[in-house]
Amino acid sequence: MAQEIELKLAVPDASLAPVAAWLDANGEAKGELTLLNVYLDTPERDLARARAALRLRRKGAQWLQTLKTAGQSQSGLASRHEWETEVACEAIELQRLPDEARALLAPLAARLAPVFRTDFARRTWILEQDGARIEAALDSGAITAPATHAQERIQELELEWLSGDESRAADALRALGARLQAIAALTPSDLSKAARGYRLAGVANA
């Protein structure tokens, strides 16, 4: 089980160009790709009530399944548990997940169905900050909830801790965030894409 530690910042239109230019100048550009994602839950929204999110992601020719469990988020800085494995196609494969994740999903498996989508283009860079290795991901796209015919824009920067002293990960992310906020108007965001998707789908307190 991985521990995901990240800082999320909302990016207004006027900040897109200066943020990308700063990242080009100060980080190692890793390219751009399109990520197509569908989030699943039961009709009773068992995962939402447990503050968990289950996602199938198409990344080029590769399919990934990801389960994230309840975490904490304050001033855009989030920490949560995450399991991610490859799958053969757009279908959940419980046997590829570790025991803890499989135990959560197995009772729900027969009733899982798509609830909303998050589809976006992602540009990524790798940066160093105070001994930490950090991935910066600039996402632009949309969240759609077919049942409510609702759509919401995605335009955000995610700074994710990759390696270094984990006890100092939050400080390193905040320091890098402050450097970026000095060159563009960026606002910390505590809502994950999954939380926003559930709200669009009409699920309260997701």
Protein topology:
Elements: E1 2-10, H1 13-26, E2 28-41, H2 46-49, E3 53-59, E4 62-68, E5 72-74, E6 77-87, H3 99-105, E7 113-129, E8 132-145, E9 150-163, H4 169-181, E10 187-188, H5 193-200
Antiparallel strand pairs: 1-6, 1-9, 1-10, 2-3, 2-7, 3-4, 4-6, 5-6, 7-8, 8-9
- Determine the CATH superfamily: Hypothetical Protein Pfu-838710-001
Strand content: over 45%
Major β-sheet, in short? 8 strands, antiparallel, barrel
Number of strand elements: 10
Question: Between the first and last Cα atoms, what is the distance in angstroms?
Answer: 23 Å
What is the CATH C level class, in words?
A: Mainly Beta
Radius of gyration: 17 Å
Instruction: List low-confidence stretches.
Output: none
- Measured as a percent range, the helix fraction is 10-25%
Structural class: alpha+beta
Choose one word for the global shape: globular
Number of domains: 1
Q: Number of DSSP helices?
A: 5
| CATH topology group | Hypothetical Protein Pfu-838710-001
**Mean pLDDT score, rounded?**
94
Strand line-up across the major sheet: 1-6-4-3-2-7-8-9
- At CATH level 2, the architecture is Beta Barrel
**What's the order of the H and E elements?**
EHEHEEEEHEEEHEH
Pfam family, one: CYTH
Enzyme class: hydrolase
InterPro entries: CYTH-like_dom_sf, CYTH_domain, YgiF
Keywords: Hydrolase
